[in-house]
Specification:
By secondary structure, the protein is α/β, with parallel strands linked by helices. The chain has two domains: 2-403, TIM Barrel (Alpha-Beta Barrel), CATH 3.20.20; 425-516, Sandwich (Immunoglobulin-like), CATH 2.60.40. Helix content is 29%, strand content 18%. The chain has helices spanning 2-7, 14-23, 66-82, 109-112, 126-136, 163-166, 185-201, 226-232, 243-263, 298-302, 306-312, 333-342, 355-360, 364-373, 385-389, 395-403; strands spanning 48-53, 87-93, 140-145, 149-151, 171-174, 177-180, 206-209, 270-273, 317-318, 351-354, 379-383, 425-431, 436-441, 454-461, 474-478, 482-484, 493-501, 511-516. The chain has an eight-stranded parallel β-sheet with strand order 9-8-7-3-2-1-11-10. α3 (66-82) runs parallel beside α5 (126-136). The longest helix is centred in the middle third of the chain and has 21 residues, at 243-263. Residues 1-33 have low confidence and may be disordered.
């Protein structure tokens, strides 16, 4: 179904086709499947390896001019790549503002020091530059947005062009922060406009949101949404005693509308959510379906029904933040890992890891081993990425030499498309005065997500069986249709194999060529 939708996505009926396909998705939870565990593979060929890079609260960027920032971004991506990271989750909208050129929201104060102030080089777009740097290395860029947050502190001055000044009645203060009122349809519409603008103008691989939907509750202080509840609850079918259900419905509507906004613009761009690590505590669920935990809950406290979003196909991957250590009394890591593995409807599932806590407890390797033991877990993401860049306690070395000692491809999004791209053809060696390289042809077509987007280059020693399922033979993932070969004295023979990856990370058959280096 999704293949037909992609083929016809430019036609006006595309969003309707998407809705129909989502309605037909299997509704059974993965707890009904035969095996929830597998033998861990220490060098998996397919594994999501992400890193979160937050901009909220950061002062480093505003101390840089555009040239310095370009150099910083280039070095950032290089260091992540060398540590085996294949997906950068970069925060581009921390306070209803922008780390990119936008006509809808002002430049972020965390970028230049003052909200609304542009970078010193008018031609510089940080998001475009980061995307290009990631894609050069075969890495993904997930654009991380916070949907409702406007101010992390009410004392902050908003830029004159901020939407708040035009519609102040659409915002609420809670504690010391300012938020869009989630109960207003016009706010959902605006957030979707922002998403649609990003997806239409930038080559992002995904839109990403974390655990900040309704704000974390402040003891003794109710969220001040009386006006929107009084205005909309009854017409939406909610009684006076169903405010919690109404709030969950507000977030459900936002998630659903964002998915449709993305799919109606570029259906190959994914939508991922990184929720708080506990969906519901078992004691809170009438049927006992929650986890054996006793902490804050997505469903009851943040009004985020993440399990429903997965079941309905409104999101394309889930990345729960399992930041606790093993043996934690309120939220044991292993207990939660097994719960998410059994309750994610066989959709793409990755695990959020707290680097500092895991390293302090000397259990990072064990946590990754456990995640690889889960049948329906397909990777991990690390909080926070700056610790990898700084090689905190040698973590980048550990990743490069142990956890990620071979390259890994992003797991294919078979829930979106299963069609393999066409194999590359006409692979040949080229010699020039300066270079010796491989080149090939492909069916790359701009705007067609099922054609070649990237290429995987494998290398095999003379006499070695060509097996592209072995990750240790991957030497490069590149958007280019060529690969520069090393010189090793001119006496060694290798077989190189090249495959194509489409936008959903489906891989073609290989094309082989023998070369002497």
């Amino acid at each position: 179904m999704i293949t037909d939708m992609i083929t016809n996505w430019k036609k006006l009926f595309y969003p309707l086709s998407l809705i129909i396909s989502m309605a037909l998705l299997p509704s059974c939870g993965s707890s009904k499947y035969t095996s929830l565990t597998r033998v861990p593979d220490p060098t998996p060929k397919r594994e999501f390896r992400g890193a979160w890079v937050q901009t909220v609260g950061q002062s480093r960027y505003r101390q840089m001019n555009s040239a310095e920032m370009k150099n910083y971004f280039s070095e950032m991506v290089r260091k992540f790549d060398e540590a085996g990271i294949n997906a950068l989750i970069f925060q581009i909208r921390p306070e209803a503002d922008a780390f990119y050129k936008s006509s809808l929201e002002p430049w972020s104060r965390f970028l230049t020091g003052s909200q609304g102030l542009a970078p010193n080089d008018p031609s510089f777009d940080p998001l475009t530059y980061l995307i290009d740097e990631c894609h050069k290395r075969g890495m993904e860029l997930h654009a991380w947005m916070n949907p409702y947050r406007v101010k992390t502190d009410v004392s902050i001055t908003l830029a004159p062009q901020h939407i708040y000044w035009k519609y102040p009645e659409r915002f609420l203060q809670y504690g010391s922060q300012l938020y869009f009122d989630p109960g207003l349809p016009e706010n959902r519409g605006f957030i979707c406009d922002v998403v649609r603008d990003i997806v239409s103008r930038y080559d992002v691989d995904a839109i990403h949101m974390d655990d900040y939907f309704y704000p974390y509750p402040i003891a003794g202080t109710p969220f001040p949404d009386d006006n929107s509840f009084a205005t909309y609850s009854a017409s939406q079918g909610f009684a006076a005693n169903q405010r919690d259900d109404w709030r969950r419905n507000n977030v459900n509507l936002l998630i659903q509308q964002i998915k449709y906004a993305i799919a109606g613009t570029k259906p190959w761009v994914r939508f991922g959510i990184s929720p708080f690590g506990i969906y519901r505590n078992k004691r809170s669920t009438p049927d006992g379906s929650g986890s054996e935990t006793s902490g804050l809950q997505n469903y009851d406290d943040l009004y985020a029904d993440i399990k429903l979003w997965v079941e309905k196909g409104w999101i394309d991957y889930t990345l729960p933040q399992l930041y606790w250590e093993t043996g934690h009394k309120a939220a044991d890591y292993t207990t939660l890992l097994k719960w998410w593995n059994a309750n994610n409807y066989r959709k793409p599932l990755y695990i959020g890891q707290d680097l500092k806590r895991s390293i302090d407890k000397n259990e990072l390797w064990e946590k990754i081993r456990q995640s690889r033991n889960m049948t329906f877990v397909n990777g991990n993401c690390y909080w926070y990425g700056y610790q990898i860049l700084d090689n905190f306690e040698g973590v980048a070395d550990m990743m490069r030499n142990d956890l990620h000692r071979t390259k890994a491809l992003i797991p294919a999004y078979e829930n979106m498309s299963v069609k393999r791209p066409k194999a590359v053809k006409k692979a040949k060696e080229i010699f020039t005065e300066d270079m010796h390289f491989l080149t090939w042809e492909s069916d790359r077509q701009n705007g067609n997500p099922e054609s070649a987007h990237y290429f995987v280059v494998y290398r095999f020693h003379k006499g070695e069986t060509v097996d592209i399922n072995r990750s240790e033979n991957i030497i490069a993932v590149t958007p280019d249709n060529f690969f520069v070969l090393p010189y090793e004295g001119g006496n060694r023979t290798y077989t190189y194999a090249v495959t194509a990856l489409d936008a959903f990370k489906n891989e073609s058959k290989e094309k082989k060529i023998k070369v002497k280096l």
